[in-house]
Amino acid sequence: MNPTSAAPDRLRGDEVDRFAAWITAENLRPERHVAYVSIDAEAVVTEIRDLTPLGPGGFLVIRDGDGYSAALGVESDAEVGRAWLWGPFVTAGPWQDTADTLLTAAENLLPAGIRELELAADTRHAEMATLAERHGFVSMGPGSRFLHCSREHAATMDLAEVPALDPAYDDQLAVLHPTCFPDPYFTAAQLREMHGEAKRLLGIVEEGRLLGFAFAQAPAPPQESILDFVGVAKEARGRGLGEKLCRGVMHWAFSGPGVDALSLSVRNDNTAAAALYEKLGYTLDRVAVGWRKQRISRA
């Protein structure tokens, strides 16, 4: 059978390791890189198993014998009302035609309440840009830089612990978070819910006021931690609190064994944040752009 003519099937839990090796090899190519997926096979295994809300079954695959010729993952959050499309990845046959097949099939994986769809890819992924335009996705702006800081570099820095945010300040966090990030992929309530051993919500409080916060996570196995948010109240900016929070996240991420790097993304037009991360020794991995589409509700 021609693999490009096969119908998409859902990924099984017993094939995650093999599939992760295939998708990682594809994602290492800049002209095929999808921003939501890691480039380390072991980390990708964890990402697939933790894919919200369907786990491995959230990936549609087109099989080619014992391997794969195409795939598309779906991550969604009904509370936010958005789904993130991990792909499409296509290694055989007409790229656009196969991608269309996967997008159509992915509709069946979307729960009720999903109003928006997102795609994101390396700026060199011309096929994804064409797909987004054909399907009515709209550019989300100037794109983001993806950066990382290594354990070796962090070891040369002066780092200090920043305390976990006390739940007593959650009401203030609920106000500050959307002020700093008007369109976040995690709400303030979700940050609190996720806070724990492998996901950390830090805060700087003065005289009963929350002035800044940061959230980072170290998925298991934690070869790489991810810095998701650093936010500082407008009236407290210019005092170095953002840098203090970043150093606190680095202290947390590298305080134990296993984490080799801390990664993050920053908007291309956020020059102040980019300058801070450059000062802290982060290096550029790639530049990615995203597209969003309002989904037509299907009653």
Give a written overview of the molecule.
The chain has 299 residues and is an alpha+beta fold. The protein has helices at residues 16-27, 41-49, 95-106, 126-134, 151-154, 170-180, 188-194, 241-254, 271-279; strands spanning 9-10, 59-64, 67-77, 82-90, 116-122, 138-139, 144-150, 199-206, 209-217, 224-232, 261-267, 283-294. The chain has 2 domains: 3-136, 3-Layer(aba) Sandwich (Aminopeptidase), CATH 3.40.630; 147-287, Gcn5-related N-acetyltransferase (GNAT) (Aminopeptidase, 3-Layer(aba) Sandwich), CATH 3.40.630.30. The protein has 9 helices and 12 strands. Strands 1, 2, 3, 4, 5, 6, 7, 8, 9, 10, 11 and 12 form a 12-stranded mixed sheet that branches. The mean pLDDT is 92.
Write the layout of secondary structure elements.
Blueprint: E1 9-10, H1 16-27, H2 41-49, E2 59-64, E3 67-77, E4 82-90, H3 95-106, E5 116-122, H4 126-134, E6 138-139, E7 144-150, H5 151-154, H6 170-180, H7 188-194, E8 199-206, E9 209-217, E10 224-232, H8 241-254, E11 261-267, H9 271-279, E12 283-294
Parallel strand pairs: 4-5, 10-11
Antiparallel strand pairs: 1-2, 2-3, 3-4, 5-12, 6-12, 7-11, 7-12, 8-9, 9-10
Helix pairs in contact: 1-2
